[in-house]
Amino acid sequence: MSSQDAELSTLDGLSPPTHADDPEAGFASAHVPTLTIVWHPTLERVGDRALLPLRPNGSSVLVSRLEPDFSRPGSSKREPLADPHVSRTPIRLLWLENECIRIEKQGSPTRVVVNGAPLESSRDFSANELQAGIVLELANRVVLLLHLDEARQESEDTLGLVGASLAIERVRREIRQLASLDVPVLVRGETGTGKELVARALHDTGTRRNRPFVPVNMGAIPPTLAASALFGADKGAFTGAVRSHGYFGSAANGTLFLDEVGEMPLDVQANLLRALDDGGEVQTLGASHMREMQARIVAATDADLEAKVQAGAFRAPLLHRLASYELVIPPLRQRRDDIGRLFVHFLYAELDRFGKADRIAANKVWLPASFLAALVRHEWPGNIRQLRNVVRQLVLGSHDAGPLDPGPALAALLATPPPPAVGNTSPGGEPGPPPTKAPISPRRTSRKPSDVTKDELLEALRTCDFDMKAAAERLRIPRSSIYNLVEQHKVRRASDLTREEILRCLRECDGNVELTARNLGVSKVALQRRMRELKIG
C-alpha cells in the first residue's frame, strides 16, 4: 500500500458528522434547550451559556437576574445574569410534550421581546423554531439565544477560529484529524464563511507548519496566465517570459491553497490533475522535464462543482482527486450562538484598528439589545465577512465622543425580516423559520438583472465592501451582470478616480488605504490598482 493510499484509508476512520451537524436528523438524545448570552453590558459574559434542565414533559425553568447560572462550556465558574435592570421576578420557560417551548412572562416587570415581538403574557414556539434559535431581549440590555446544545468541553486551542458552537467545534475536530494527513482537502462553504482561515488552520496544525503557506485566488488570475502562475515557466517559454517557479515552487514543502478553484481554466485543470495523479510531478511551462511537486493542496470553493462538471466546466476526475476529504464550513445562520462572540471579537479589533480602543476602557461600547437581536435574526448572506463589515460601519459611523451609535439606516437594514417560509407555521399560526438545512451553496431564486434598481445595487455593494462577486450573490444575479449594472447606473469605479481625489482622501484618512477605499466607494483592491497606475505611494 502506498503512503497516499494509507492516508486515504485513514480518512475512512474520521468521525462522521453527528446529528448535531444534520439539522434534519431530529433532536439527538444529548441535546437540551440552552440559553447562550449574545449580548451583555459586561462584554466578558458574551458567549456564556446555561444548559437548561428541561425535558419534553412539561418541565420548566425560571429566568431572571438571579437564575439560571451561566458559564463557559466546560468551565466550573458559574454566575447568573446579575444585570440590575433585569428583574428578580422571573419569566418561565416551559418545554411541552410536543417539543414546543412556551415562554411565559408571569407578571415580571422586565421588558421582554421575543423574536422581535414584545411578550405580553405567553407565546408558544415550535420545535423547528427552537432548532433555528429563539432570540430573547431582556430590559433592552441583555440578549439571549434559546437553542439546542449539549454538555461539552470548549476547545482550549481555537485554531484561530472564533466561536464555540457545535458546528464550529465539528470543523475544529475535522481539522485536527486531517492536519497531518498529506492528502488533498476540499474546503466548501458559502462566500464569507472563512475558508482561508480553515485552510491556514490545517497548515498551522500539521507537520508543514514551519513551511510556506501560499494562498492563490484562482478567480483573480487571468486565464491566459494561470498555467505559468501555478506551475512556473522557463525563460522564453512565451513572449516576455522569465524563469519562474510559480506558486507550486513558492509553496515547496508547505501548503498551496487554491481558493475559488471552480474558476480554474480547463487546461490548467488538466495539468493539476496530472500533478495529483502522477506521484506529485508538475511540468514547468516551456520545460522538457517534470519536477516533483512538494506542496500539499488545499482547495476551496463556494461554487456547485458538481453542476460545473455536468456543464463541462470542471473535470470530474479532478473533483474526485481534490475531494479526498471534503470539509464543509457552516454558514453563519447555522451557528447563531457564535454571533455574539464574533461581534465582540470584531468590535475590539475595529476599535483598536481605528484608534478608538479607549472606548472599551471608558465603558462606551454599550449598545441597545434590539440592535444585537437584529444581528442574530439576520440571515447573513455574506456570512462572517458581512458581519465584520457591519461592525466596521458601526465603529466608523460613530462620533469620537459618546457611546457607539448603530444608526437608523444600519439598524433598518439588519432588522429587515427574511421572506416568510411556505408551509411552515408556528402553533400560533404565524410563519415560522424555514427548516434549517446545510447546503454548500444557497439555491436562491435568481433575479433578472434588469429588475435591480440603482439603490439596491449601491446598497449591495456597500454591504459587501464593494466585492463584486459577493454583491452579485446578494442580489441573486450572475456575476457577469453586475458589471453591466455598474455601467448602466453609472456607478463610479476606481478607474474614474483622479490622482487629486485619491491624495485628498488619503490625507483625510491619515493614509489608511482601506478607510480611503470605503470613503471613495470602491474596493480596496481596485483602489490599490488605481494607485499603482497613478504612481501614488
UniProtKB/TrEMBL annotation:
GO terms for molecular function: ATP binding; sequence-specific DNA binding. Residues 161-396 form the Sigma-54 factor interaction domain. The keyword Transcription applies. Signal peptide: none annotated. It comes from the Bacteria. PROSITE patterns: SIGMA54_INTERACT_1, SIGMA54_INTERACT_2, SIGMA54_INTERACT_3, SIGMA54_INTERACT_4. GO terms for biological process: regulation of DNA-templated transcription. Keywords: ATP-binding, DNA-binding, Nucleotide-binding, Transcription, Transcription regulation. Pfam families: AAA_lid_14, HTH_8, Sigma54_activat. Residues 1-26, 407-453 are annotated as: Disordered. PANTHER family: C4-DICARBOXYLATE TRANSPORT TRANSCRIPTIONAL REGULATORY PROTEIN DCTD (PTHR32071:SF57), TRANSCRIPTIONAL REGULATORY PROTEIN (PTHR32071). This is Sigma-54-dependent Fis family transcriptional regulator. It comes from Polyangium fumosum.
